[in-house]
Amino acid sequence: MQILIEAAKTLEDKAVIERIRREVFEREAGIPLSRLTISADAEALHLLARAEVTGDPAATLSVIDTSKDHELHQRYGLRFSSNSRVARYTQLAVLKSYRGLKIPLMLMLEAHRQFVIPRRFDYTWLLFDAERAGVTFMSKRLGFTVTEEIFEADCGQSRALVRDERAVSSKRAIEQAEEYLDQFLRRLSTAQATVTGASRGIHAAIS
Q1: What is the dihedral of CA 45, 182, 135, 61, to 10 degrees?
Q2: For residue range 31-80, what is the model confidence (pLDDT) as tens digits?
Q3: Which residues are registered as beta bridge partners of 89?
């Protein structure tokens, strides 16, 4: 299955994103969906993933400029210099039928390409479940460092994950993650082609 990821541009796109998040956070997980707070002078990117063939929505992720939101950073024990460029990844949601396809990794890499790199952010961060923060793909494949302090967030006990975008290790992690994703998608494409070919053979035999 091919996945197409694009920036939300229309009100319809944003409505679809909200529906995905309500399905995943509220209906499935029972977590009240918080409204994204974006200051007037901050930029943001909202990504929407769809199945390329059908156009059906699959997942979403937002990345927001929080450079001037020092109060937010302090709330989660994040210590950046006052002139640092900082962006937050937030409200990642994948519909159940599209899980297992590495779409979260696709979204994170695309947000990095479209938003983090061109705007030259110094740091990126996000909140994640405290117990699983050390084993998530963000820390294992994308070079995020897990902070020690635990905070109570909308989704329960959480830790902050931070990445220094200027570090050589972070750039290497991105490159390795891109290679890993490319290999995964190649294997997936081969497997799907094999299944499709077998299905056609069965159909022909029955006919």
Answers
A1: 20
A2: 888 878 777 778 999 999 999 989 999 999 999 999 999 999 999 999 99
A3: 63
The count of C-alpha atoms lying within 13 angstroms of the C-alpha of 109, restricted to the half-sphere facing its C-beta, is 21
Give the H or E element holding residue 3.
strand 3-7
pTM of the model: 0.90
pLDDT for 133-171, tens place per residue? 999 999 999 999 999 999 988 778 999 999 999 999 999
Type of residue found at 32: P
Sequence ranges of the domains in the chain: 3-197
CA of residue 25 relative to chain centroid, distance? 15
What are all long-range contacts of 172-176, with beta carbons under 8 Å and residues at least 24 apart? 172/143, 173/141, 173/142, 173/143, 174/109, 174/112, 174/142, 174/143, 176/141
May I ask the CATH class of domain 3-197? alpha beta
